[in-house]
Amino acid sequence: MRGRFITLEGGEGAGKSTMMERVAGWLRVSGQRVVRTREPGGTILAEKLRDILLDRNNLLLSGKAELLLMFAARAQHLDELIRPALARGDCVLCDRFTDATWAYQGGGRGLPREDIAVLETLVHGDLQPDLTLLLDLPVDQGLRRASRRSEADRFEQEPPDFFGKVRQAYLDRAAADPERFAVIDASPGIEEVWAQIHAVLQARLAP
Ligand code: Z5A
Fold first, then answer.
1. In this model, does residue 121 exceed pLDDT 80?
2. pTM for this one?
3. How high does pLDDT run on average in the chain?
4. Given ligand 1 and candidates 96, 120, 150, 191, which is best to mutate, with the most ligand atoms within 8 Å of its CB?
5. Cβ neighbours of residue 201 under 8 Å, at least 6 residues apart?
6. Can you tell me which atom of ligand 1 is nearest the CA of 19?
7. Which of 7, 17, 197 to mutate to test the pocket of ligand 1 (most atoms within 8 A of CB)?
8. Cα dihedral angle (25, 26, 30, 33), rounded to 10 degrees?
């Protein structure tokens, strides 16, 4: 039986990396082998594409090229890491996946939904995450947190309006598929956010 595929999503500074650690710990304690990974990236080749995508000097990268590079990285990631791990029965825990493309390239950049849908089908057919934890918080709060952490990458240089559209696109996707998504209020402190996620894991994944 294939392993579980779990993704974490959210805007800038939502706390995905912080919560990945705890989710991975919970899964291990509940007896699962866990493969932690991220997008764009997750394999040597896909991480090279990530470098191009996040490099703040690549200001001329077009929206269409950005979209294709996201899916190129994803195709490599799926073939080399995600699908083999799921086939072994491992649980794959991934920081962002195609919902991020719908949110950033679809919502933020306003690229055509039909183009994203075609690439999604081409690259992962009907493979979708079993559970997506969407960490939601107001844009200004997330940007403040992210700015404390590191130098802005190419996406983080976008105006607040861009991130407002990203947030809305995520919330729309979650509302359209409540069975897969769990929306987490990521605005309180770390322990409170974890308590919400822990409750979702217990309710949806506990043996
Ligand atoms: N992207 C895309 O456009 N299309 C796609 O298809 C995909 C991705 C897959 C990848 O960046 C970029 O690629 C991303 C979208 C785009 N845009 N950007 N930038 P990423 O995912 O690697 O980086 P990120 O989204 O910017 O992650 P982040 O800023 O590192 O956020 P995070 O992982 O969600 O947050 P964190 O590192 O856990 O926390 C940030 C800081 O806040 C840190 O100091 C924490 O200690 C603190 N923190 C965390 N939680 C809390 C709480 N609850 N209270 C207080 N402080 C907290």
1. yes
2. 0.97
3. 96
4. 96
5. 23, 26, 27
6. 38
7. 17
8. -40
